[in-house]
Amino acid sequence: MNSRVLPALALILSVGIFFVYVKPTWSGPLKETKVAIVNYEQALVAADEYKKKQNALTSARNAIDQENLNRLSVFLPDSVDNVSLILDINALAARSGLSLANIDVVINDSTTGNDGIGKANPVGSVDLSLSAIGTYSALQAFLVGIEKSARLLDVLDITVNGSETGVYNYKMIMRLYWLR
Q1: How many CA atoms lie within 13 A of 151 on its CB side?
Q2: pLDDT digits (tens, 9 = 90+) for 68-119
Q3: Is the dihedral of CA 36, 39, 45, 51 positive or negative?
Q4: Spatial distance between the Cα atoms of 154 and 51, rounded to a whole number of angstroms
Q5: 147, 153, 154, 156: CA torsion to nearest 10
Q6: Domain boundaries, the chain
Q7: 75-179 has which CATH code?
């Protein structure tokens, strides 16, 4: 009888250990750990894909000629550099024969950076209001200079106040674009 009791006790003990310790451990902390491991593995795969994409974009950017990058940074700068822009416009006006009287920054809807549907626009803009005095040919030369400028500018509005002397007062609104 002793030979049958010992295996039965061992079986009952092993079933008890299974239900008291192994099953709760397996379905509790071990299951949570396995789920965490799967999530971490997915994050590692995503990080590896991101790193590959970043390296590809860096290689593509490095393949661009530095002169073209410099031209692009002048065309669409990464900040609003009002001082250099005003100096450039003033120099262009002086070369054209216009005399700038006043330059003001006008707040417009596009300075908020929102395109109306909740998505941020990567290109910002600022409107500049300027007053100038000069002849019509000077205005034409100034506008040709703005058109050929390396900086992205739009002339939105021009108001001309007439004169008997051939020297006119001009009020212009220009839009300056920059990369956020």
Answers
A1: 24
A2: 888 777 777 777 767 777 888 889 899 999 998 888 887 665 544 555 555 6
A3: negative
A4: 39
A5: -120
A6: 2-63, 75-179
A7: 3.30.70.60
